[in-house]
Amino acid sequence: MSGGPVNLPRRDALSSASGGGGSSDVEARLSALEKSMERVTAKVDSMSERLSRMEGEITRLPGYPGLIVVLGAFVALVSTIVGVGTFLINNLP
What we know:
The chain is mostly helical and 93 residues long. The protein is built from three helices and no strands. The chain has two domains: 15-61; 62-93. The protein is elongated and about 105 Å long.
C-alpha cells in the first residue's frame, strides 16, 4: 500500500441518520441543541461575572493582622457589655 490519500464515496450523514432520507428531525434536534447551548453559555457567562465580583470582595477582606484587630475589638466590646451588665445587676436597689 502506498501512503497516498484514499478517495471514499461521500455519504450524506443527515439523509442517512433517520433512515428515511428526511433531515427535518435532525435539524429540529440540532436547533434545540443550539438553543440549549446558548442558555448554557449565558449561565457560564453569568457565573463568570459573579465569580469576578466575589474575587474583588474577597481581596478587600482583612488579612490576619486585620482579623486579629477585628476579633480583639469584638472581645473588648463583649467584655465591656458583660462588665457593665454585672455592675448594674450588683448595684441596682
